[in-house]
Automatic annotation (TrEMBL):
Pfam family, one: Peptidase_M23
Domain M23ase beta-sheet core: 77-169
Xref: PANTHER family: CELL DIVISION PROTEIN YTFB, PEPTIDASE-RELATED
Protein name: M23 family metallopeptidase
EC number of this enzyme: 3.4.24.-
Molecular functions per Gene Ontology: hydrolase activity
Top-level taxon of origin: Bacteria
Phylogenetic classification of the source organism: Bacteria, Pseudomonadati, Pseudomonadota, Alphaproteobacteria, Sphingomonadales
Names of the cofactor(s): Zn(2+)
Keywords, comma-separated and alphabetical: Hydrolase, Metal-binding, Metalloprotease, Protease, Zinc
Amino acid sequence: MRRPGRRGWAGIALAILLLVLFLKMCVRILPGDGPRRQNFERPAAAETGPLLIPVEGVPPSALTDTFTQSRAGGARPHDAIDIMAARGRAVLAVADGRIEKLFSSEEGGLTIYQRSRNGKRIYYYAHLDAYVPGLAEGQGVRRGQKIATVGSSGNANPVAPHLHFAVHDMAPGEPWYGGRAINPYPLLARPLR
């Protein structure tokens, strides 16, 4: 059997390098295990927008604006963004506030409704795998605090775990299930310059 010469090895190395670069550009699902930061630092608003990205380890470049996409065969708007991540990845509170409602539904699965500290917004986290132990309605939470884990509960595809994240502007006295949907993408992603 003949062994590849210098040119043969160079070609193989180039092919491997191109494959690795291609995979790095195409794959955005983050591993569920691996090293995690112990202390959550508050990122600068210029890096991530006014809200913290609600899935641990997800950079702004991994976000996709799916707010205006249709769902249920065009029957309803998405009114949220989906953040793809491995099952079990930490879901973090996007801002200071309190847990308004822990709820399970056929569409959203295991969900959290968090009201902002000033009461003017609801942050909705859906398709969760589990809540952190001890999480309760009325509990105060801090920006960056782990509140749940990514999953595929409800009507989510079981082979594509993700966080469905929505933001609603609330009128005074409006209940947790009300409000007007606003696009969370510009609140999370780095502003374009």
